[in-house]
Specification:
The complex is a heterodimer of chains A (about 500) and B (about 120). Chain A is about 70% helix and about 5% strand. By secondary structure, chain A is mainly α. In chain A, strand 1 and strand 2 form a beta hairpin. The longest helix of chain A is centred in the N-terminal third of the chain and has 32 residues. The radius of gyration of chain A is 22 Å and the shape is globular. Helix content of chain B is about 60%, strand content about 0%. Classes of the chains: A mainly alpha (about 500), B mainly alpha (about 120). The interface between A and B is large, with 38 and 42 residues.
């Protein structure tokens, strides 16, 4: 099925960027409405695309009308649709929350939209080289957002972030072209077919390329030992930007899933299912590292950054334990991304009310609105830990029940339950330090600003919706895992899409 | 012989790039990233196989197989890669300069002047 409208999630934000930059000089006040309009449209498009993906078809767009594997393809399967919707929701919250921040320097909204274009493109693209290009697009925008209105701390963290990602990009190019050199193609579907029929003497090279890709996606997903940059970077990013970055680790997770399920998951060839044990072990180590990193944090933002590591490790570990566990992981991914984004916004708001001490765990002025922020913090912490009744609990139960008989169950159960317990302890301690161990509030602390409140509201509503819709959401996640476990569907959909005949020659 | 030369040049470039990337000063790291991206660019080019006097465009009368042509795709890919690497190098240079003036040090890991105490931030 050919679907030309799949370009919309990529082209729309880029178009808006162009319009915004053109009228930036004489109508600076138009930037926010335009950016908001674009994000709302993206949300609507993402909802429509989820409905399309829910009809069991994989939609394909042949950009340039070349038959695959030639030319560029955009592919919408359930996983891509799910991530597009998640991106749009988090983006809306982050955009609302960043209204004040955006005014502190030029081009914030433009970079924000470019970031969205990169994210959407990375989820939709059907070939490896364009995945690289969209990674660069989203990274260069993320550098700018991270360093927007940056102080010395953000500058240092930003430097580390840029350098490690540049090294990652170099490795990505090596991996992509190595696969091209071995198979002669870059299209995901065609690559999956070619890797099945690879002669024995080329398999070592393909494995090397696969491992390089794992390193690259490991850097993005912040999997141990490549994730040390994450707590510092997210801690130094402005709150609304950190909330948007909650989706960035999911790009790495998406890459790991796409590579292991599609490229190295198809057929019964020698390379099928290869490397799953290594990915599982890295996931478990990441959970452990994240939990202990949270334990040793001295401020709230790095604490939340460490919890992002825990969530990433859980997802990566669970994704290798079979189809039902992957379904649970996908369900949990949406919830945990929303919860992390919520916590980043909240911690930003808390930090603003505590004067010079910000979000450090030290005796300082009390927040000006202890009841409001405290209750929100309890909700956010409960969501992050996965306490009932929020959807994180359902996600954890799904993952645990799916892995009872899995080979790595002992490790996975210990990691998931132990990290949950540690996170609960750490968040409870953080909450009591910040809200109870205080001096009188400063008179200058402003109440929760409306942009922050709006962003937090969007994320709260989205988390509640995910909880209320747990039944259809679980079915969608299960169907997504089933679709991913059958890479043949993806391959056929891409390779059998016929180009549109040129106008005038139709009959 | 050519393959050996290209491969060893790639190895030397990568080794120098990695070594410089691991150093503690931003200028060295920027140079290291540049060397690394040179190595990557040559690698991309080589992945289309080394060929001599073979055009990348189909000529009439010559069979359209890679035995008679250079693979055009890596040449297109390498252009994209060069542009991106160039832009990123420019960005990291600007960042390094800014870091140099803000922190008064060109270390990758500068000791922040107010290490340990929270930084001042203007109220929102």
């Amino acid at each position: 099925m050919s679907a030309p409208w799949l370009v919309v999630p990529v082209v729309l934000p880029l178009l808006m960027t162009a319009v915004m930059l053109l009228c930036e000089r004489w109508r600076p006040s138009w930037q926010l409405p335009l950016s908001l309009l674009s994000t709302l449209l993206l949300l609507a498009v993402a909802v429509a695309l989820v409905r399309v993906a829910d009809t069991e078809t994989i939609a394909v767009t042949l950009v340039g009308n070349w038959k695959a594997p030639f030319g560029i393809v955009l592919v919408l399967d359930r996983l891509a649709a799910m991530l597009l919707l998640l991106t749009a929701v988090v983006a809306l919250a982050s955009l609302l929350a960043s209204v004040t921040l955006a005014r502190r320097g030029p081009h914030f909204q433009a970079f924000f939209q470019i970031q969205l274009a990169g994210l959407n493109g990375a989820f939709l693209t059907g070939d490896l080289f364009n995945l690289f290009v969209f990674f660069e697009v989203l990274l260069i925008a993320s550098y700018a957002l991270l360093l927007h209105d940056a102080g010395a701390r953000a500058l240092r963290a930003g430097m580390h972030y840029v350098i490690i990602n540049l090294v990652g990009s170099a490795l990505f190019l090596l991996a992509a072209t190595l696969l091209y050199g071995v198979t002669g193609t870059l299209n995901f579907a065609d690559l999956a077919l070619q890797l099945q029929q690879l002669p024995a003497h080329d398999q070592g090279l393909a494995q090397a390329a696969g491992l390089l890709l794992l390193v690259v996606f490991g850097i993005k997903a912040a999997v141990l030992p490549l994730g040390f940059w994450l707590p510092a970077t997210y801690g130094a990013a402005p709150g609304p930007v950190a909330a948007l970055f909650a989706i960035m680790t999911k790009v790495g997770f998406y890459g790991v899933v796409r590579t292991s399920m599609l490229l190295f998951g198809a057929g019964e060839a020698a390379l099928t299912g290869w490397g799953a044990e290594a990915i599982f072990a890295l996931g478990i180590f990441t959970v452990a590292f994240g939990a202990f990193s949270a334990l040793s944090s001295v401020r709230l933002t790095t604490l939340i950054g460490s919890l992002v590591l825990v969530s990433t490790g859980t997802l990566v570990g669970a994704s290798t334990l079979g189809e039902p566990a992957l379904a649970g992981a996908l369900f949990y991914m949406v919830h945990s991304t929303l919860a992390m984004a919520l916590l980043f916004l909240l911690v930003h708001a808390i930090g603003l009310q505590r004067g010079a001490i910000e979000d450090h765990f030290a005796v300082g002025p009390a927040v000006a609105q202890p009841v409001l922020l405290g209750s929100l913090f309890v909700v956010g912490a409960g969501a992050a830990v996965g306490l009932p009744p929020l959807a994180g609990f359902v996600g954890k139960v799904l993952m645990l029940s799916a892995t009872v008989n899995a080979p790595g169950a002992a490790w996975f159960w210990t990691a998931l339950l132990g990290s949950g317990l540690l996170a609960l302890y750490v968040l409870a301690r953080a909450g009591s330090l910040v809200f109870w161990n205080t001096q009188p509030a400063t008179d200058t602390a402003a109440p929760l600003s409306w942009p922050s409140a709006a962003g937090i509201t969007v994320l709260l509503v989205a988390s509640l919706a995910w909880m209320v819709l747990a039944d259809p959401a679980t079915r969608f996640a299960t169907a997504t895992a089933r679709q991913l476990a059958q890479p043949g569907l993806y391959i056929d959909a891409v390779l059998q899409t016929a180009p549109v005949p040129p106008p005038g020659k139709e009959h | 012989m050519t393959a050996w030369l290209v491969a060893s040049a790639l190895g030397v470039l990568t080794a120098c790039g990695v070594w410089l990337c691991l150093r503690a000063r931003t200028f060295d790291v920027v140079l290291g990233l540049t060397l690394l991206s040179y190595a990557v660019n040559v690698f991309i080019f080589v992945m289309g196989r080394l060929s001599f006097e073979a055009p990348p465009i189909v000529r009439p009368g010559v069979p359209a197989t890679l035995a008679y042509y250079a693979d055009p795709l890596p040449q297109a890919l390498v252009l994209t890669a060069i542009v991106i690497a160039f832009a990123m190098t420019a960005l990291v240079l600007v960042l390094a300069l800014k870091s140099r003036f803000v922190n008064d040090s060109d270390a990758c890991d500068p000791v922040l002047p107010d290490a340990g105490t929270p930084a001042k931030r203007p109220p929102e």
